[in-house]
Amino acid sequence: MIIVQNYINGKFESIDSTIEDVNPATGEVIAQIPKSGSLEVENAVVAADSARKSWSDLSLEKRTIWLDKIADVLESKSEEIASLESLDTGKPISLARAVDASRSVANFRFFAEFARDYKSEKFEMDDAINHVILKPVGIAGLITPWNLPLYLLSWKIAPAIVMGNTVVAKPSELTPLTANLLAEVIHEVGLPAGVVNIVHGLGSEAGQSIVEHPKVNLISFTGGTMTGRKVAETASPMFKKLSLELGGKNATIVLDDTNLDDAIPGIARAGFLNQGQVCLCGSRILVSEKIWDEFIDKFVTFVKGMKVGDPSSEDSDLGALVSFAHRDKVESYIHLAQREGGEILCGGKSPKLSSPFDKGAFLEPTIVSNLSHMSRTATEEIFGPVVTLHSFKTEDEAIEMANCTDYGLAGSVWTGDTQRGARIAERLETGMVWVNTWLHRDLRVPFGGIKDSGVGREGGRWSLGFFSEAINICVKES
Ligand code: TXE
User: What's the CA-to-centroid distance between 205 and ligand 1, angstroms?
Assistant: First the structure.
């Protein structure tokens, strides 16, 4: 049993009230975490406030060296990150290694290097020069979800501290283990006390207390759209800087000129990576009617070959969903799909696994056809291993179908003609589009959504801008 503590002002602290953390692949309780409330958040904010001045007085160059130190120690613990992440979330170990562990290290390295190279802007007038400088915002409240726990926490902590802010972070109560490991790493490298504080607990208690706290100047939140709305309702009247990265119902458009043998592994990856629990997952697959039969044949065969099972096994393609409650939610959408007239082409139920995984929150990858593209199943975020298939006649129809939901996060277009793909990509109402690939990330580019998928952009210079206040100093020649 792992005992997770809060990390406040450079010290690990327990409290009496705790929450159980469950391994969703077996149902076993693996850790106890603090059930923090406003008192612990207050202590963390006081610590972050006391550390503010000395941290922001350090040069940016010196702060980047701290990021490098954290990256070095994290990297030496890559295997531990991967196994904790797999245990806590139920995701396959191979994915936890390739995506979670490596990106968590890369986030610290990237923001150290990117901030070092960042050139402040200058605008010259006939008789004056404007110098734009980036100052810290103050205390950053960072709230992160359970699907990519350390990947998303490090994506926020690294730019927040490199720009001179101090941090109060609350990881998801479902997946606290790697945030705890990060606290240990931060402690080991000796980052000044109070610069990063990690408070564990429920969203409605610890999370809400961070968002409400008058001394927290900025909120960066990744999570569900409903929760994001609540965060915005609390933070906006207090004029906090706000970045919300919310849900998605992303379209995958497959044009008639696509080489399906090449594309299908990528389309299946987009649908089912991390059991479909990535906000960017392509869960609505729109296929040209000219290749519909061939697509269904090849796609269903491919997905039926995906292996669901023991997350620690190298050959599992899918592990467990993050929790039993979440598996129930995803299953309820499979039942809804059937009530809406959908035909289940494969999956739709829990796989038969041997002990201890017979008690886990597993679901087979599921393909549903025969639904209207306007049905609830095809327009609401399921966030699980369920995709719906829809056929289209023309490019215009594909674009109209892709843009028909309230979400606007991401999408992908698959084609033999990249110019045609790029032309369609420009007409999609989303923050990000991939052509002939998916989740191919350059950390310098903007990341975020439009419509109900969120507000603001992070990534590269957008993160540096969000985690700072841009101040203009106009100097007139005397
Ligand atoms: O997320 P929540 P949930 C979607 C997905 C999923 C749905 C709900 O569709 O089924 O959201 O998931 C904290 N003030 N995504 O309920 O509640 C919470 O403790 C402050 C998409 O698990 O949004 C956790 O740390 N914080 C998504 C974080 O918010 C609060 C990833 C996210 O949890 C809070 C996850 C409050 N009032 C789910 N209430 C993505 N965009 O990748 C909760 N939290």
Answer: 13
